[in-house]
């Protein structure tokens, strides 16, 4: 039996996939602890792991980040992303090291595995001189010698001109990352380390094992990935117990379109409202989720063919869905594609434009190239996906590959190989 410590930043989309891995490790007889925010205690303990709560590190509400990180107030786009990375992921790292050190001194472990933005886990392992594993719960942001910098939502070049563009963009990474240089150096010093001058994309990935959610069909056909990278498909957390909505039978023998704004930045006016307007009056049922369990309504009228719920177990819903309209959250995108569902993606900020670009590159959906589309644009994209069978064929191919990569069980076996 091995002793494992998993760490995840306290976001629903980060904790969920890692609890799937925790459950798989527990099922194999291992002892598992899970370091994250205390509000995830119930979910962590349901996986069979023991919670190690953030203590010195400040917990936060992902739907009100500015309450804990006030520099985010009023910020959008690149400035929002840089401040989010600097204040949430990097600046909290020394306090994470304090928590992890206290837990290590109380009860050591054999293997540490962290999501790719748990900088505190990186610095702790470097300080101790111990190996670690990275479990990627976001689209793979691993730098390489070819293609554009990941995260920009740009497909790799296929001719001399676009490959030159990619090279120029790679050269800009140090410039773009410059605002993060001081926060990273401060975090390293705060953890008792000597600053290394690394950029963010060079600090987060393990050189021992990277278990990446997703699949090669969502990775632009990159051939420059390291030998210690393994794609593992979908890391699907166990569904929460929930009664099915009273309208569930309305889905029987109907075409079903899912609309979801995800679990972060969930302003329904951005995507849900124009999507519902676009689907109004069509011969189909639209299932729209608010992203907040128990909140089963939106602050605006919905069309007669819409059904709304705060939470619907995807394990029950996705087998009935014909098409999904999504904001590009990676976990929800992977879940839909694992069921062979073609997508319309409105990726607005953070990693969402990158997700949208990868879906479009795979042929499994349409990239709306904005997080706030107009109803006409959503409707046109839906028509295109439903009329052209190539989208469903591509989604089926991606889904088959995702399902064949082993998921949480495969990830647990890879981690056990580090014992």
Quick structural gist:
By secondary structure, the protein is α/β, with parallel strands linked by helices. 39% of the residues lie in helices and 14% in strands.
Describe the structure.
- Residues 302-399 form the Erythromycin biosynthesis protein CIII-like C-terminal domain.
- It comes from Microbacterium mangrovi.
- This is Erythromycin biosynthesis protein CIII-like C-terminal domain-containing protein.
- GO terms for molecular function: hexosyltransferase activity; UDP-glycosyltransferase activity.
- The structure is a single chain.
- Helix 1 (12-27) crosses helix 15 (407-416), helix 4 crosses helix 5 and helix 9 packs across helix 13.
- The strands form two sheets. A seven-stranded parallel beta sheet has the order 3-2-1-4-5-6-7, with helices on both faces.
- It folds into two domains: 3-237 and 405-416, Glycogen Phosphorylase B (Rossmann fold); 248-403, Rossmann fold, CATH 3.40.50.
- Helix content is 39%, strand content 14%.
- By secondary structure, the protein is α/β, with parallel strands linked by helices.
- The protein is built from 15 helices and 13 strands.
């Amino acid at each position: 039996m091995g002793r494992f410590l998993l760490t995840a930043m306290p976001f629903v989309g980060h904790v969920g996939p890692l609890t799937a891995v925790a459950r798989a490790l527990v099922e194999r007889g291992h002892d598992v602890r899970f370091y994250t925010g205390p509000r995830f205690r119930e979910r962590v303990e349901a996986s069979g792991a023991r919670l190690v709560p953030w203590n010195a590190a400040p917990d936060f509400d992902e739907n009100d980040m500015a309450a804990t990180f006030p520099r985010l107030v009023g910020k959008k786009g690149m400035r929002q992303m840089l401040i989010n990375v600097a204040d949430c992921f990097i600046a909290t790292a020394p306090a994470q090291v304090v928590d992890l050190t206290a837990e290590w001194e109380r009860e050591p472990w054999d293997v540490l595995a962290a999501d790719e933005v748990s900088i505190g886990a990186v610095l702790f392992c470097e300080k101790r001189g111990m190996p670690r594993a990275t479990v990627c719960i976001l689209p793979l942001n691993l730098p390489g010698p070819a293609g554009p910098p990941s995260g920009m939502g740009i497909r790799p070049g296929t001719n001399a001109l676009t490959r030159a563009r990619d090279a120029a963009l790679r050269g800009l990474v140090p410039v773009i990352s410059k605002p993060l240089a001081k926060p990273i150096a401060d975090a390293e010093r705060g953890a008792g380390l000597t600053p290394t001058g690394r950029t963010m994309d060079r600090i987060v990935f393990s050189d021992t094992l990277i278990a990446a959610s997703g699949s090669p069909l969502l990775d632009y056909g990159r051939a420059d990935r390291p030998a210690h990278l393994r794609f593992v498909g979908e890391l699907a957390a166990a569904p929460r117990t929930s009664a099915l909505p009273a309208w569930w039978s309305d889905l029987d023998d109907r075409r079903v379109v899912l609309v979801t704004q995800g679990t972060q930045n969930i302003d329904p006016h951005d995507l849900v409202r124009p999507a519902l307007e676009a689907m109004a009056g069509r011969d189909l049922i639209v299932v729209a989720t608010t992203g907040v369990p128990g909140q089963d309504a939106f602050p605006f009228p919905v069309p007669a063919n819409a059904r709304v719920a705060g939470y619907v177990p995807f394990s029950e819903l996705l087998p009935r869905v014909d098409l999904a309209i999504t904001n590009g959250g990676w976990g929800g995108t992977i879940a839909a594609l694992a069921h062979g569902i073609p997508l319309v993606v409105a990726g607005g900020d953070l990693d969402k434009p990158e997700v949208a670009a990868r879906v479009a590159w795979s042929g499994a959906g349409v990239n709306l190239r904005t997080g706030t589309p107009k109803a006409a644009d959503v409707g046109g994209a839906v028509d295109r996906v439903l009329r052209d069978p190539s989208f469903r064929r591509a989604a089926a191919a991606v889904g088959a590959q995702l399902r064949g990569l082993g998921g949480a069980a495969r990830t647990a076996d890879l981690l056990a190989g580090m014992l």
